[in-house]
Amino acid sequence: MSSYSKIEWTESTWNPVTGCSKISDGCMNCYAERMARRLKAMGNKRYENGFNVTLHHDLVEVPLKWKKPRTIFVNSMSDLFHEKVPLSFIRKVFKSMGQADWHIYQILTKRSERLVELAPKLTWHRNVWMGVTVESQKYTYRISHLQQVPAAVRYLSMEPFLTPISQLPTQGIDWVIVGGESGPRSRGMKPEWVRAVRDRCLKDDIPFFFKQWGGYKKSASGRLLDGRIWNDVPTSPCSG
After folding, report:
1. What is the 3-state secondary structure (H, E, C) of 18-43?
2. Closest listed residue to residue 188, CA positions, set 166, 155, 212, 224
3. Is the pLDDT of residue 205 over 50?
């Protein structure tokens, strides 16, 4: 599964794994689960198993076929570090990322315990960015796991942002994304929570990306924070 993406902070998605399971508060209204069910109902063969974890071995080398450099979100429909994804398969994905080193790859996980456990067993190419989701104060421990990973770029995705976070740990963090929850039954996000994170990023000279306010229907100012769009991204060498 691969395509150009509407996600504001990336260009393409690549899904050698599909399917996941819920492990934290941010998973409640999972967009990927809704999409997987819809694709299964439409008869898409990639989603015959619905949202159960499925490995697509034939898609592992897809980035090698994309000759124009692009930024790629790895597994927008899953979590590469899900417990049902074998280390041998994760290594194959990392090998492809190293071979197709003209791209930048963005990996995001909520399973930071497994990430830090497997990190020493993986080859961290310079074009691989690693992030963890931190949707509330409850999950800031994931940051300490990420800080131990030797990725060229380490980033936080605070989406859906569900509670204020005091004293956000930023040492060794190269990028922060913040976004409100969207879609049916979306939970609200307060401006003061976002401003606190933005101000911390400005203080620590960390690129800050504001993705959206969220809600069931986005307004015309859906990405404006204090009158401007925050699109900052880190720079990183794109060579394996």
Report:
1. EECCCCCHHHCCCHHHHHHHHHHHCC
2. 212
3. yes
